[in-house]
Amino acid sequence: MFKKILGGLLAFGALALGIFLLIAWESSIDPINTANPGAFSDEQIRRGEVLAGLGNCETCHTTDANKPFAGGRAMPTPFGTLYSTNITPDPKTGIGQWSESAFSRAMREGVSRSGSHLFPAFPYTHFTKLPDDDISDLYAYLMSRQAIQAEPPENTLEFPFNIRLLLAGWKLLFFDEGRYETVSSKSDEWNRGAYIAEGPGHCSACHTPRNALGAEDTGKAWEGAIINNWYAPALNASNPTPAGWTETEAYQYLRNGGSPFHGVAVGSMADVVHDGLKRAPDSDLKALAVWLSDLAQAPGEQQASERSASAIRTVQNTQNPSTVMDEGERLFTYACAACHYNEPETPNTLRPDMALNSAISAPTPVNLIRVTLNGVSLKEGIAEAMMPGFGEALSDRQIASLLAYLRATHTDQPAWANLEQQVRDQRP
Ligand code: HEC
Ligand code: HEC
Ligand code: HEC
């Protein structure tokens, strides 16, 4: 009896393994002679360039600015470090021998030309939404880049995460292959924005928390997440902004890297704006803004500016110059307030107002700490504007009391815990 059960279990196990291998198995696609860049029209290459910008391909696939798309960028994951690959048309180390169908399979199914499964750090879970035309345009753009010979370093993933075949199981659980589906109840512009956000722009790859196996937690879609040691805020209605993400605000932020009622784009979001979105036409950014303000359930423009003015006024009214200042307030007054002062009716993006700033109302202080320590470079935020860092001038304790003061006086959010330790953790 026992033997029979065991035998049955074994047979079942073998069958399951067989089925798994059958699903997991992907064939290799034959190499081609490197595609002739002359085969693509300028128009197609230009469209591909915009898509590559929306998809941030260059940001992830470049380590040395003189070798664009040659790969090798380290992507730390909880399971070890993964390196991006060379996607220039170099035949040996890049994708020069890839036919368009091999490229399309990689983008939409996460399978390399050789047949091996690709790690979802490459956001094919989003690129799968791209229609044929967009795939062709991207292929034309990449195949007409300069071929660069460069081999990325070996991945250092721990066992069993280094077994690519197991990714087939991951895909069964977490990956839905398929193109973007138009939502008929929404406008064309909204659908364009949603397509960019979910497809090439892969916005939720950073703005949605991930589960223990590294997949986006769809139950917590758009609720904000820590990524590369920055906090990517919630983009849905749970975003704690006092003013809301109206279309005007969202458009300005995505186009210029900052908006008057929110502050500026630093960290990975600076790459998204300045390396990626900058190539996209206004119509695409307006479409994204339409989609985003709907997701965020933004108030009307008039209401947003009233809320913003009232947030600034509330802070100004509570500041009483006759009282003795505590350490945090004193530091803010001398170190920050000269640059961060606004009239309630006309807040200026070039001196982000602390009563409106996302970094101060966020559930975690990482962005505020990093900006205070390191400042904002000319490349981040609003281009050509900068802020000095205070990491040298102020101690961990001083920064902690300054930020605790800002949190307590400029928002209605609960205090952050262990601030001083958190400041120490963010020091280089
Ligand atoms: C968030 C970082 C990231 C972004 C953005 C990104 N990639 Fe990648 N890509 C990777 C990583 C990492 C790999 C390697 C995955 C692996 O080894 O399994 C990869 C692999 C690939 C591959 C497979 C190459 C091979 O040799 O198997 C192709 C093709 C590719 N990416 C194209 C693109 C294109 C086109 C874009 C933009 C539309 C893009 N990637 C955007 C990180 C990224
Ligand atoms: C590589 C990760 C990453 C990707 C991809 C990304 N973001 Fe972000 N995003 C961030 C980070 C980090 C911040 C916080 C930046 C800051 O505080 O200055 C941010 C901030 C924002 C903000 C401001 C939120 C606030 O409350 O201040 C908006 C709006 C936004 N992103 C929209 C988008 C859109 C739309 C996309 C897709 C086109 C996108 N993001 C893609 C990482 C990312
Ligand atoms: C010399 C002027 C100056 C001083 C002093 C200064 N800032 Fe800034 N700050 C700026 C400018 C300009 C920006 C916008 C930078 C950009 O867009 O590139 C900025 C941006 C910021 C942001 C926005 C980041 C975001 O994610 O939106 C925060 C937060 C901030 N500053 C906090 C502080 C704090 C705290 C102090 C004092 C310790 C301080 N600043 C002192 C000029 C200054």
TrEMBL record:
List of residues binding heme c 3: 336, 339-340
Protein name as catalogued: Nicotinate dehydrogenase subunit B
Cofactor dependence: heme c
Enzyme class, UniProt record, top EC level: oxidoreductase
Signal peptide: none
Organism whose genome encodes this protein: Marinobacter litoralis
Residue numbers binding heme c 2: 203, 206-207
Locations listed in the record: Cell membrane
Keywords: Cell membrane, Heme, Iron, Membrane, Metal-binding, Oxidoreductase, Repeat, Signal
Region entry Disordered, spans: 301-321
